[in-house]
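Q: what sequence does this backbone want?
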């Protein structure tokens, strides 16, 4: 089944995202699990609140990007007949 194959492929998918200032970069799989997280040395010298804001922003950006790629993959598997499910 195309749907089952697409779901398996999500685990192999890699979504790479960097913060707007490139202080944080991360890689997620298609199940939105963080595979890799890199923080620049420059960021570590910043205030704790700033670091937290950058990490949150990068994670939110990565989740949005993952949602788009997951939606595309699932739409491809269903021939564009994917129901309008919130979050997909």
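A:
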């Amino acid at each position: 089944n195309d749907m089952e194959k697409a779901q398996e492929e999500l685990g192999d998918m890699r979504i790479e995202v960097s913060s707007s200032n490139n202080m944080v970069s991360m890689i997620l799989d298609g199940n939105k699990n963080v595979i890799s997280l890199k923080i620049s040395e420059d960021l570590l010298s910043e205030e704790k609140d700033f670091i937290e804001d950058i990490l949150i922003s990068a994670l939110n950006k990565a989740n949005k990007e993952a949602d788009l790629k997951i939606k595309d993959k699932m739409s491809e598997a269903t021939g564009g007949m994917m129901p309008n499910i919130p979050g997909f």
